[in-house]
Write a structure and sequence with these properties.
The protein is mainly beta. It has one domain: Beta Barrel (Porin). The protein has 2 helices and 8 strands, in the order H-E-H-E-E-E-E-E-E-E. It starts with a helix and ends with a strand.
């Protein structure tokens, strides 16, 4: 896995150096994310979640940008599942992606690869317990840019079977230009 990540990072560095004369626009995006789980393992307990994201976009040409994205998604336990008094269970998903955004006028496509942290948090009265794991993740995002706001739809996959997470998400973000 480290070899694959190093190859992808080297590719992005080469693309950056080759297109330095055509430097595009740089932004930081701050957004709101919401999503639904698509596979049975998570769908039964944690069908929908919400959270926030931060994305850095570095222009590497007139129509491309390298992206670094970090999300936090919170999935509360489905209300139909009743736990004994004082108990609570929640799922937290924190993916980090490196991607390449291809801009087509106001539309964009953005494939991404990275990793994800999974945290299952249990609470019973005053006792708390968190179980964490990590895994490989990838995503494909498509969206539309309205001046300083962008909206997108994303398919995201993280982890390994049988407890992998398939997610269909929506994102609304505000673009902050980095003019230096």
């Amino acid at each position: 896995m480290m070899h694959r990540f190093s190859t992808i990072l080297l590719f992005f560095l080469i693309v950056n150096f080759k297109s330095y004369g055509q430097h595009g626009e740089d932004y930081i995006n701050v957004g709101f994310d919401a999503g639904i789980t698509l596979n049975d393992y998570y769908q039964a307990q944690f069908p929908a979640g919400f959270g926030a994201s931060v994305k850095g976009l570095y222009g590497v040409g007139l129509s491309g940008q390298v992206s670094l994205t970090a999300n936090y998604l919170y999935f509360p336990l489905d209300r139909s599942i009743v736990l004994p008094g004082g108990e609570n269970l929640a799922f937290h998903h924190i993916p980090v992606f490196l991607g390449y955004r291809m801009n087509f006028d106001r539309f964009f496509l953005e494939p991404q690869v990275g990793g994800a942290l999974f945290a299952m948090r249990y609470r019973f009265d005053q006792d708390r317990y968190t179980e964490t794991s990590t895994g490989f993740a990838f995503a494909a995002e498509a969206g539309y840019v309205f001046d300083m706001v962008e909206v997108s739809l994303r398919y995201q996959h993280a982890g390994s079977s049988p407890h992998h997470l398939g997610l269909l998400g929506v994102r609304a973000a505000y673009k902050i230009p980095l003019g230096y």
